[in-house]
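Researcher: Here's my situation. A collaborator sent me these components and asked whether they could plausibly form a single complex. I don't have experimental data yet, so a predicted model of the whole assembly would be a useful starting point for our discussion.
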Amino acid sequence: MDDLQFRRSILADPNHRDDAINAKIKQDPVNKKFTQDVTALDDDIAQALNINVPSELVNKLMLRQTFASHQQQKSKTRMHLAMAASVAIVMGLMINIMLFSSTYKNLGDYAIAHVNHEAEYFSNQSEAAISLASLNEKMAVFNGRFAKAFGKLLFADYCRFDGNKSLHLVFQGKTSPVNVFVLPNNEDIKFVAQFSDDKLQGRSLHFKQSNVIVVGDKQEPINLWQERLNQNISWSI
Amino acid sequence: MATKQVRYEALVKALHADLYRYSYWLCHDKHIAEDLVQETFLRAWRALDSLKDEKAAKSWLITILRRENARRFERKRFEMSEYEEANITDVKAASNEQHIENHWLREKIAQLPAEYREPLVLQVIGGFSGEEIADMLSLNKNTVMTRLFRARNQLKEAVDNEPKLRGLDNG
């Protein structure tokens, strides 16, 4: 190592020592003096570089961070709120669909459920009470009328069942009342021509605006009832 | 969350002073230096999870700060090469004599070209080795050592050449 190299090395890093540098320092007092001078200068430089740090800087840094993480949390809670709201909306929609959609998918189910629901109110032995005129008055709502009386009409009134307004007629049957429903066409309910369960059977007639359904027990000649209805009924529109 | 907070606080307490000094010598302005440090620590907080090695924290922070400083120039280009005396910090030192000496040397350091000053600050304040500085500044080690040599050489010459003036100041 020559003198120039030595000086360069000391000036580049005064604290660096290796065998070559140590040898140079021992070898020549000038080199030793130079090293001491540079080390002293370096202490001065270090002191000069050590400017005062603003005392409140630490607090400022903590404060900025607190705000930053607070904002992060805020956006997180907002996110949670949004998720909760979405779940609530979905729940609301589901409940809506379940409550207000038709429970019965076809006319047969609807009619049988209706009959079973009201079976206890009607007796086959009760007196006939409804005249043709008052029946047709009620039929006018559905734009229909019967040409002549047939069978023994025990009951005729509007019924609301599963959200649909319908006209419910009860005739005297052989062993149990025969139910006739006149109800407007409803897209939600599928039309079925024939249906039955273990006790009841039924037929449906499809007209332009309305469906006419006959339901009776298995002893009842439902075909005959249906035929009578079909011949008697007429629609004004 | 709590551990992240603890890590951040430890980082701030341990390194904010060095970072501020480095920042100051980079930009020569107390307020900009403070802004840079704040911005740096804010970014550090957001990216704290990516800091795996605590030993690398200092050079990590310095790298962030250098990037922030560079960004400052992208946004607004103003002349920083011209050194203004008024910008140099007037700090309270232990004694008046020390104060004047420091002030004189500070001026000399501030007058160094930026590419010489930066490695010197990193070496003296940061305690980084030549290799580490080369890494941070994306230079090779020989270049860094040459710049360090030139920086000290210029300061030494300045000290050697102005004994009278300093004597007057001190007197």
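Model: Some features of this prediction you could bring to your collaborator: Chain A has a mean pLDDT of 83. Chain A touches chain B at residues 8, 11-14, 37-38, 41-42, 44-54, 57-58, 60-62, 64-65, 68-69 (CB under 8 Å).
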